[in-house]
Amino acid sequence: MLWIFASLPLLLLTLGAWYLSGLAIVRNVLRINSGLTVFVLSLPVGMMLNLVLVNAVAHLIFFPISSWIIVIGTIPASLFFLRHPQPPLNWEISIRQRLVLLAALLLLVLGIFYINAREIWGDDPGHASMINLMASGEFPLLFQCNPQIRASYGYGGDLLAAVTQVMGGINSWDAEDVVKAATVASVVMLAFLVGWRHKQKIGAGLLSVFLIFTAAGMLWMYEPLSSAGGRYIAEQTSALSPLPQDLDLLTSDPGHYTIDTPDTPGFASYGYSERSLSWGFAPFVILFFLVMVDTPVPPFTKSVTLGIILAMAALLHPATLSLLFPGFIIYLFFWVRARRRRRFPRLDFNPIWTLVVAFVLMIVQGGQITDTILDKLQGIPNVMTSFMLAPFQLPSCRGETPTVHCALLSVGTMGLVPFLIPVLLWLTWRTYKRPGWAIILLGAIVAMGTTLVTRYAYIDWNIQRLIVFSVWTGAVLLGPVLYEYF
Prior knowledge:
Elements: H1 3-29, H2 35-57, H3 63-82, H4 95-117, H5 124-135, H6 156-168, H7 172-199, H8 202-214, H9 228-236, H10 243-250, E1 258-260, E2 265-267, H11 270-273, H12 281-293, H13 299-316, H14 321-338, H15 351-364, H16 368-377, E3 387-389, H17 404-414, H18 417-432, H19 435-453, E4 454-456, H20 465-485
Antiparallel strand pairs: 1-2, 3-4
Helix pairs in contact: 1-2, 1-3, 2-3, 2-6, 2-7, 4-7, 5-6, 6-7, 7-8, 7-12, 7-20, 8-20, 12-13, 12-19, 13-15, 14-19, 18-19, 18-20, 19-20
């Protein structure tokens, strides 16, 4: 941990450049005057901006040099634009409340950074190899185990970590931890803003933050079957005999809430999953899109911004597109059919521009979609996109004959989400009139359904992350609803 003292000035410079550039965009381009919204969006917008710029420039200029050009260059550029006269910020909460919330945010993020810095977790080694390759100038990214093969991977988080490594002079492990901390800070602020906006209640925002960190499946229901008399009964019952061993695996780590599948567990609580560099960006992208849809912004600017967010989702966590795109398309379908009767809230942006910007960027920017298209054109097999329709199966029964054992695990995996999301969607339609909520909830329904009828030849259980994303999304939206009714 001593590296932090030597590298701290450059790390603060990098993070400061991200926030400052985001602030300039939010004020001068998006023209947002809400103080709370400006504060929340500046960091994620700055991270997204640096991702777009470095990813583009590094295709032309050596990656380390590109990193310095973009990070250092955005500082004077941002200051120049921020000098232009702007309408005063309208702060909706008092300065005392802002200071208390800021202190709580810093305490939470520093604690998460400390936890991550003390361990090399799960998929950190794979990410570290990609970060080192980019930081040393190997760009566009190729498969680290065979440079003859395209990476076909959403490397957005790794790119930001590589920029952090170059700028701070730190190793890839520590660069990952810095980016994880910045990602968690963004997710916390975005979740708070979603909850607060509902009725402008701080308690609702805090409840949304609490729920996204703690909400998971309901496998805890089966805990009695893993100990004492319940364990004996389960082991003596053929249909339940595998369950105690599964529960032992699920509870081996006190903070490890999981989804069990026939071959391996996946992670369900964001409080645990943020330790994965890629998984941490899933709610970042989904909540960022949700917040931007419901934020008053000039129409053309909003159309382009939402397109960029969708495109960057393909670099940060491509699986989030399985939630965002279906929800967006379904909402557009119903909106076009019902807009004459005013049943749907009016979209204040052009969805065609959004889709055009998203598709063009996804095709040319690199990453999984670009590499897949190139492989298809050249007749090269690409297992990273080997999805196929399959007969209906419960989530935890994938690849095996349905049993009581896997059916129970499936119920615990999905929990109350299949019931809560339709309720939230009904409230959104009847009462709240929020297009962002409707888009995300429609996407969550499709994402949950996809896990029941789709197989993934590369790593089949990975598709269940769509359940996890739906859980996190539902948790954030549930916060203000619970606060209002209880």
